[in-house]
User: What shape does this take?
Amino acid sequence: MPRPDRRASRASRASRAAAAALGAAGLIALAAAPAAFADDAEPELVVGGIEPVDRLRPGSTFDVPVTVANKGTATAAKVWVT
Assistant: This one.
């Protein structure tokens, strides 16, 4: 039987990994838009509101609340977060 402190650290690592994966997905989505025409109106998407997830178990699913906001001057036609 694992020590209780080891289980807590596994859950903590898993939640940090989940938050990092969502952050990376958001950054990839932001980088996909070309920045060649900086003077033109374009969307500026930002990702926020990602918080750690507690008590994850191997093979389980979980929901992570996230906020995607457009701080730019143009409408973002589509947003994918994977």
The two ends are 35 Å apart (CA to CA). The helical segments are 4-31. The chain has one helix and two strands. The chain has a mean pLDDT of 75.
